[in-house]
Queue: 3 jobs
Job 1
Amino acid sequence: KTCETLGVKENLCGECEALPGGEKGFRLYNAKGITFDGYTFDDSNNSPGSNQVLNVCMLARYGNKGDYGSQGVPLTSSLALTAAGTTKGPHFYGSCVEGGCGACSGNAVLPAGADWRMLAIGNTCGGDHDLDKAWAGVECR
């Protein structure tokens, strides 16, 4: 119920909670790691406000192929949460330079309606079998 109340359409296998102090946004957390469609998110290029973090926030808020509507892109203060003990697994490719690879979640802010299932898995634009430590969560503002 909390995810629905916070306007989260895709909980990424995490639990939803409000940000402290009444701050606008939400936090998703899973001590073992958040995932979408069985894949984690790249453990590189996930600094606060990075394209990859903003895209994961939009995936959570609007769902895969979501319509961003008037809400738009999350604030650049959004951040990935890491923690000891998360599992390693195949991941969406996010460690690219901005404007480098269209199949990378770190390439640019994905447009409304983007399909995460079309993004590369692993550490290259063409995909590979790399495993990364999962993010424990994300705070989206």
Job 2
Amino acid sequence: LSKTHQLVLTHGNGPQVGELALERAAATFDVLGAESMGQIGYVLAQAMQSAGITAVPILTQVVVDQFSEAFKDPTKYVGPIYGAQEAQALQNSLGWTIKPDGEYFRRVVPSPPPEEILQIDAIKALLEHAPTTLPIA
């Protein structure tokens, strides 16, 4: 595949960000997101290295529309699952937005679609100048 295409490995981090938020309630989601991106990128780079592939994790930031409907109706699940009573208690005591996730409940946060990736030039530079290196973003 890499012989005919430029590859970039991307990943999600909702469960990890939610767990970090439970550990450090004072930290903002952008900082927790960066921390989890670094952790996941590191693990993926290690796995790629064990397969003989050079990989470079890149922490990325995106620009979003501050007026996006996503801020009015959060949909990104973060953190662990809860039973109905515990979810209601957390919503009441911490002001979280909670939504059903199957038969359980989880915290949700806004996740507006990205309009721009701020580190896109770094990703493009890796693809152009180090074509055998796999960017992880």
Job 3
Amino acid sequence: RRRLAAKRLGRHTGPGKRHGTANARMPQKVLWIRRMRVLRRLLRKYRDANKIDRHMYHDFYLRAKGNVFKNKKNIMEAIHKEKNEAQTQKVLKDQAEARRAKNKQVRERRKVNASKRIGRKK
């Protein structure tokens, strides 16, 4: 029992005590499966809470499968970054649209005023 308590503190686990490769002791496949489950659970939670839409969900799902994200924190940061980027793009797009509309009105006003001036000269 004392030995188990010491082992929990990290004792008796040096290279001399190990038989078997690191992969035999803790398979990479198991680590991969755990990571995928964590990332996919997070994506599902975000989609159900409407934090991300289905297109973003699909994109991040495939990227998680493609080994882009190391852990949950990485994928959360990426999601926040992409959402902020999309928000910024939307604001810029709206501003450009407003500018175009304003310029169009100015052009129309100038055209009307010019036609009035031409009408007065004659």
